[in-house]
Amino acid sequence: MRVRLLLAAGLAVLTVALTGCPKKNGECDTNDDCKGQQGYENDVCVNKHCAECGADTDCKTGFTCQANKCVPKPECSTNADCGAGKKCENGACVASNTCTTNADCPGGKCLGGQCKPANACAADTDCEGGTTCQDGVCAAPQQCQLEKVHFGFNEATLDDSSQSILKTDADCIMKRKLSVELQGNADERGTAEYNLHLGQRRAESVKKYLENLGVEAKKMKTISFGKERPINPGHDESAWSENRRVDVVEK
Description:
- By secondary structure, the protein is of the alpha+beta class.
- The protein folds into 3 domains: 25-73, no CATH class; 79-139, no CATH class; 149-250, CATH 3.30.1330.60.
- Helix content is 27%, strand content 22%.
- The protein has helices at 2-19, 31-35, 160-176, 192-212, 237-243; strands spanning 44-46, 49-51, 63-66, 69-72, 86-89, 92-95, 108-111, 114-117, 132-134, 137-139, 149-150, 180-184, 220-224, 245-250.
- The strands form 6 sheets. It has a 4-stranded mixed sheet. A two-stranded antiparallel ribbon has the order 1-2. Strands 3-4 form a two-stranded antiparallel ribbon.
- The longest helix is centred in the C-terminal third of the chain and has 21 residues, at 192-212.
- The protein is rod-shaped.
- The termini are far apart.
């Protein structure tokens, strides 16, 4: 009996010697040690202790390992990670309403102390590449078009409608730095000689008005075609009113 007890005690001592002291809950040598402990089944072994993670690879997608805990990965680390009008604060992209330079507005621009889209503007000087400021946005300048003006029967004076058209023409000529030919025309009634003189008077009337609006005289040339170039071949007042005109033509 005594021999059996001695043998059992010896076996116990040998087992302890071979296996070491029993591990406390949460202690480990390998990941498998954690899997067998209640409350640590999903942990990994980090420095002899079971923990949620030891590296980012221990966490699922969208999470990172911080202080052995899987936490949501921050949305950003610098302003460049955020879109236009936003900045990075404490790992999150938040609206940025104030700025001092374009660097404060990734993907946008600093305009009047506020982050705006890259194509925003308040004046033409805010735009680049030949664009101009149109309704708060930098866009390619719209190409203005020159318009003709019409006259009353046997008249070379400009009515309100014609003056309004010529103001637009003057702006276009000066903006595009154009040279133009002012082509006077008349309807079919009257002699060829009379209509040539009438067409010239009309062209000169337009030139004088454009000069008063700021167009340089050297940028304009006058010529008369009389009744030789009708744009409406009809023989009534509707046709004649279209043919009594001065064409403002880019040269």
